[in-house]
């Protein structure tokens, strides 16, 4: 019986699943964003976020623990040198899953999984959205539209002279 065993096996043996998650985590660390299925992305999120948390304190033991999971020296050094510096003040939630639709061949639900602090496009959108709008009645909007051309007319006459 498999009561209370809510772990997604992804249709693989334990060794295959571990190797796949390790490779996907290395790719995520190197490229900052990868495309995969939603089920694999959710499994990868549970796999990689504790490793990123472990990378916040740069000790020999934490490096050994992370290396035993990743098995890639380049990914480990990048995680400890660049990523841990950028996420030092973040208390968790280092990755973001963005759904992109369904795959053409087998209709699997696809997504991006990315490191949160490395998507500059999302950060710029948040800054741009801070401008607030005020609600005005229709009469106030019409009077503002009428006043604007009147103010622009004297400026045009001054340029003509």
Automatic annotation (TrEMBL):
Q: Where is the composition biased (Basic residues)?
A: 129-138
Subunit (UniProt): Part of the 50S ribosomal subunit. Contacts protein L32.
> Which organism does this record belong to?
Bacteroides luti
GO BP: translation
Which family does the record assign?
Answer: Belongs to the bacterial ribosomal protein bL17 family.
Tell me the protein's name.
Large ribosomal subunit protein bL17
Q: Which NCBIfam families match?
A: L17
Keyword Isomerase tagged = no
């Amino acid at each position: 019986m498999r009561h209370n065993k809510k772990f997604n096996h992804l249709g693989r043996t334990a060794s295959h699943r571990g190797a796949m998650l390790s490779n996907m985590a290395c790719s995520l660390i190197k490229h900052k964003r990868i495309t995969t299925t939603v089920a694999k992305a959710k499994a990868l999120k549970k796999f990689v976020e504790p490793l990123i948390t472990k990378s916040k304190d740069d000790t020999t033991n934490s490096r050994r623990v992370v290396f035993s999971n990743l098995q890639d020296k380049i990914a480990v050094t990048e995680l400890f040198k660049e990523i841990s510096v950028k996420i030092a003040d973040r208390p968790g939630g280092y990755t973001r899953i963005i759904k992109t639709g369904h795959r053409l061949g087998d209709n699997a639900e696809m997504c991006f999984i990315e490191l949160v602090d490395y998507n500059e496009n999302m950060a710029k959108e948040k800054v741009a959205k801070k401008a607030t709008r005020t609600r005005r009645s229709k009469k106030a909007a019409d009077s503002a539209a009428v006043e604007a051309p009147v103010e622009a007319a004297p400026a045009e006459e001054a340029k003509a002279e």
